[in-house]
Amino acid sequence: MDEFNLIKELLLRDRSIRRFRQESVSIDALRELVGLTRYCASGANRQPLVYALANEQCLLDKIFPLLRWAGYYEDWTGPDVGERPVAYILQALDTGIASNQLCDDGIQLQAITLGAAALGIGACIIKSFDAAAVSGILGLPENIRPLYVVALGYPSEDAIIVPQRDRSEIRYYRDDKDRQCVPKRPLEDVIININNNRGAV
């Protein structure tokens, strides 16, 4: 049970963080996070995903404008100077190994963000970005197809899970304490084949 509770605690801490302290994350820490992906399940065990790392300021400055931040915050273009990510991990598909990643991308991204949470590092998985431009900045060959960018840094904001008040409530928001609140469905709405489900959020 202790191990189960540890996983639950990490999942509760593993929220999308979008504002960061300007404290560096070492390249060794990034390598350790990517190292976790080697232990993940992989469709047909083809293991086609690869990663590029960035924590040098010259790269951070070039990558940041190519990212799209928090679609539900319509008037917010992303973290200000002094709150921006201090590292990035780019997840990409090596098309020389496979034509698609099956379900590997999500499995491995969760491993990275859970590992980051365990180290006290905040992470935000970003799907919307200028893939061609990021590829050029990182010098990626043509067979490497970018999938996601994980923005990383030590959090300067709080992010919490709140109960979903109704099924239409899916947008995250900031409350009066400037905490990022993420509505989540109750367990009884997620398990569909038992009439008397009981459980906590």
How would you describe the overall organization of this protein?
The protein is α+β, with helices and mostly antiparallel strands and 201 residues long. The protein is built from six helices and seven strands. The strands form two sheets. The protein has a four-stranded antiparallel beta sheet, with helices on both faces. Strands 5-7-6 form a three-stranded mixed beta sheet, with no helix packed on it. Strand 6 (173-174) and strand 7 form a beta hairpin. The longest helix is centred in the middle third of the chain and has 15 residues, at 104-118. It is globular. The mean pLDDT is 95.
User: What share of the residues does DSSP label as strand, in percent?
Assistant: 15-25%
Q: Roughly how much helix do the residues carry, as a percent range?
A: 25-40%
* Main beta-sheet annotation: 4 strands, antiparallel
Average pLDDT level: 95
Number of strands: 7
Instruction: Give the termini separation.
Output: 18 Å
Determine the structural class based on helices, strands and strand pairing.
alpha+beta
Uncertain segments are none
Rg, alpha carbons:
18 Å
The number of helical runs is 6
Please give the order of strands in the largest beta sheet.
Answer: 1-2-4-3
Describe the protein's topology.
Layout: H1 2-13, H2 27-36, E1 49-54, H3 57-63, E2 87-94, H4 104-118, E3 122-126, H5 131-138, E4 144-153, E5 159-163, E6 173-174, E7 180-184, H6 187-190
Parallel strand pairs: 5-7
Antiparallel strand pairs: 1-2, 2-4, 3-4, 6-7
Supply database-style keywords:
6 helices; single chain; four-stranded antiparallel sheet; three-stranded mixed sheet; 201 residues; alpha+beta
